[in-house]
C-alpha cells in the first residue's frame, strides 16, 4: 500500500487475528457492496474512478505493468481488479491477494500524480503475486521483498517525491528511501516489531532491490518508465530476430 502498501489478508485467514494482517485499514472490505447507482453519487468514488482510468490509459509505469501481467497470464480488468473504497486515514492503497484485487483509497488519494504512484505500487505487488508463490501472511521476507521492489520501481522514491517529503540526501539516498518505506509498509499491516521488519528487509534487500522485472531498470522518472515500456514491447521482436 502507498504509505504502507502491502497485501491485506486472505479472507479465510481473517478470523480473530484480522489486525495481524492489516484488514483494519480497509473497512470497506467487510461491507456489503453498494449498487453502482449509490456509489456513483459519492464524489470521492467518482473522482477515484476518473483518476484510475486516466492512470491506466496514460501512465507508462501502469501500462508496462499491465502488459507484463498479461504476458504472464494474469490479465488485469478495470472493473474486476480495482476497487475504489474508503480506508483508514493512514493508507492510500493495498493489494488484496485473496481476491487479486487492488484497493484504491478514494478518501485519501487527492490528485492524479498520487493515483499514478499508488496504482504502480500496487500493480508491482500484483505482478509479484502473479509470477511467484508469495506467502504474504506467514513469510515476512516475502512481504519485505515485494515492498522493496514496489518502493524501488513505482516512483515512490523519486527525487521530486522525496523533496516533497522534505527529505534530502546525496549518495545512497534512493536505497535509503526504499529501505525505509519497505519497513514502514510492513509495520503498517503486520504486528511485528520494528527490529523484525528491519531484519527481514535487510536480509533480502540486495537481491530484491536488484530484481528490476519487468522494467529492466529503475524508472526514476516518467521518461525512464516510457523508455522501459518501449524496451519491454520490443523484447519479443529482438528475441525473434536472433
From TrEMBL:
One of its GO terms (biological process) is mitochondrial protein processing. Keywords: Hydrolase, Metal-binding, Metalloprotease, Protease. The keyword Protease applies. Residues 1-24 are annotated as: Disordered. Signal peptide: none annotated. One of its GO terms (cellular component) is mitochondrion. Its EC number is 3.4.24.-. GO terms for molecular function: metal ion binding; metalloendopeptidase activity. Residues 1-10 have a biased composition (Low complexity). The keyword Heme does not apply. Belongs to the peptidase M76 family. This is Mitochondrial inner membrane protease ATP23. It comes from Turnix velox.
Amino acid at each position: 500500500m502507498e504509505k504502507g502498501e502491502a497485501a491485506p489478508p486472505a479472507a479465510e485467514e481473517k478470523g480473530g487475528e484480522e489486525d495481524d494482517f492489516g484488514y483494519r485499514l480497509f473497512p470497506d472490505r467487510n461491507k456489503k457492496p453498494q449498487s453502482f447507482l449509490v456509489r456513483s453519487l459519492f464524489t470521492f468514488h467518482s473522482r477515484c474512478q476518473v483518476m484510475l482510468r486516466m492512470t491506466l490509459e496514460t501512465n507508462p509505469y501502469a501500462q508496462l505493468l499491465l502488459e507484463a501481467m498479461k504476458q504472464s497470464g494474469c490479465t488485469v480488468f478495470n472493473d474486476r481488479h480495482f476497487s475504489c473504497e474508503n480506508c483508514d486515514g493512514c493508507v492510500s492503497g493495498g493489494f488484496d491477494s485473496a481476491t487479486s484485487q487492488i484497493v484504491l483509497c478514494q478518501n485519501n488519494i487527492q490528485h492524479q500524480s498520487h493515483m499514478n504512484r499508488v496504482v504502480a505500487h500496487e500493480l508491482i505487488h500484483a505482478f509479484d503475486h502473479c509470477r511467484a508463490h508469495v506467502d504474504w501472511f506467514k513469510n515476512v521476507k516475502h512481504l519485505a521483498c515485494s515492498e522493496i521492489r514496489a518502493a524501488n520501481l513505482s516512483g515512490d522514491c523519486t527525487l521530486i517525491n522525496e523533496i516533497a517529503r522534505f527529505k534530502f540526501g546525496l549518495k545512497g539516498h534512493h536505497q535509503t528511501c526504499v529501505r525505509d518505506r519497505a519497513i514502514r509498509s510492513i509495520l503498517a499491516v503486520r504486528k511485528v516489531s520494528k527490529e523484525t521488519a528491519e531484519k527481514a528487509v535487510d536480509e533480502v534487500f540486495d537481491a530484491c532491490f536488484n530484481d528490476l522485472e519487468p522494467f529492466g531498470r529503475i524508472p526514476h522518472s516518467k521518461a525512464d518508465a516510457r523508455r522501459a515500456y518501449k524496451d519491454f514491447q520490443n523484447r519479443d521482436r529482438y528475441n525473434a530476430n536472433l
